[in-house]
């Protein structure tokens, strides 16, 4: 059973949104009361299992080794997170005891591009390009890079974006 430890508490995590899928997500966590320990860990619990109050969760918890990267920051690399809302706790002893507080983390489906139209456009630019795919979200950070030029993506639907 996991128990709360009061002195250490995550204040935030960057990035706050990561994509599910192959590969590990690299997280940088701001932590109040951070103390280096050999078994420092990030402990991620799905919000649906955590319920905002319990800190004793079996099965769904993901524990990843963490390393201190600064006076109040730690880094961890996590894999196997399914899409949804997660609570990130810190642990000084590999997940046996948890920080009293947590930081929110959202995992979304990885976006996938299946096609673009038109396939050929003038090299002078300015043409609107439709991007077909899956799992697109209305998010200000979503952008297009065409011919090395970055432009904002306009969300049309979860299956379509438009780029200029």
From TrEMBL:
InterPro entries: Ig-like_fold (IPR013783), Ig_E-set (IPR014756), IPT_dom (IPR002909)
Domain (IPT/TIG) ranges: 112-164
Domain of life: Eukaryota
Protein name: IPT/TIG domain-containing protein
Lineage per the UniProt record: Eukaryota, Sar, Stramenopiles, Bigyra, Opalozoa
Gene3D superfamilies assigned to the protein according to its UniProt record, in alphabetical order: Immunoglobulins (2.60.40.10)
Pfam family name, one: TIG
């Amino acid at each position: 059973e996991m128990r709360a430890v009061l002195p250490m508490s995550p204040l935030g995590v960057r990035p706050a949104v990561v994509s599910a899928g192959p590969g590990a997500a690299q997280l940088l966590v701001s932590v109040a009361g951070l103390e280096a320990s050999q078994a420092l860990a990030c402990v991620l619990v799905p919000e649906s299992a955590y319920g905002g109050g319990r800190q004793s969760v079996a099965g769904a918890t993901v524990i990843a080794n963490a390393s201190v990267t600064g006076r109040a920051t730690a880094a961890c690399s996590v894999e196997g997170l399914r899409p949804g809302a997660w609570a990130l706790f810190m642990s000084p002893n590999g997940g046996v005891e948890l920080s009293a507080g947590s930081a929110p983390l959202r995992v979304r489906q990885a976006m996938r591009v299946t096609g673009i139209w038109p396939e050929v456009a003038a090299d002078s630019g300015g043409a609107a390009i439709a991007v077909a795919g899956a799992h697109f979200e209305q998010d200000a950070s979503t952008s297009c890079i065409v011919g090395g030029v970055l432009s904002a993506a306009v969300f049309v639907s979860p299956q379509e974006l438009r780029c200029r």
